[in-house]
Write a structure and sequence with these properties.
The strands form three sheets. Strands 3, 4, 7, 8, 9, 10, 11, 12 and 13 form a nine-stranded antiparallel β-sheet that branches. A two-stranded antiparallel sheet has the order 1-2. It starts with a helix and ends with a strand. It has one helix and 13 strands. It is of the alpha+beta class. The chain folds into two domains: 45 residues; 126 residues, no CATH class. A hairpin with a 4-residue loop joins strand 5 and strand 6.
Length: 175
């Protein structure tokens, strides 16, 4: 009986030999495709951020226009309304995941009135994003120094609004 099982095992092994040569690369290819597809889906699920008054959302933007009158810009300040050349400043994203994001860079503010004709002043800034809702970050806090004092300017985007815009966060509510 033992000899018969051994012979049966050898016969089974001789059939599996060619199958192993085909099945092993096929298994490796299947595992790789599943891993790469999962990585691509994970990247596609990252929350985006409102970049300005045009209503566009982007992952890791280079500029954020967060005031309705254009007097505040985070990141790269472009010439002639965003149409001219590379611009000045920077925004370097240190972290960006499904729960929050963090960046350091340049903050450009118009401090004098009227803001339409006043020049921009540059400040160092750190940006903290949070409160992801419906695939977008809806809260942004800017940390910078103005006249030697620390400033924490928190802005928000209301949930499910027809016109997306950054608003002030007052008493924990999006104004």
């Amino acid at each position: 009986m033992f000899a018969r099982l051994t012979a049966c095992g050898r016969r089974f092994a001789s059939i599996l030999g060619p199958m192993k040569r085909i099945a092993r690369p096929l298994l490796v290819a299947t595992v790789l495709s599943v891993v790469l597809a999962g990585a691509a889906l994970g990247a596609a699920r990252l929350p985006s951020l409102l970049t300005g008054w045009n209503g566009r959302y982007t992952v890791r933007p280079t500029s954020i226009y967060y005031t309705g009158d254009g007097s505040g810009v985070v990141g790269v300040l472009r010439r002639r309304g965003g149409l001219g050349g590379p611009g000045r400043g920077y925004l370097h994203w240190k972290a960006w995941n499904g729960r929050g994001a963090y960046a350091v860079g340049s903050l450009w503010l118009k401090l004098a009135t009227p803001t339409a004709t006043s020049p921009f002043t540059r400040f160092a800034v750190s940006v903290v994003l949070g409160r992801p809702r419906f695939g977008h970050f809806t809260q942004m806090t800017l940390h910078y120094r103005l006249s030697g004092r620390r400033v924490a300017d928190t802005r928000c985007v209301p949930d499910r609004q027809k016109v997306a815009e950054w608003r002030l966060l007052l008493h924990g509510r999006c104004a």
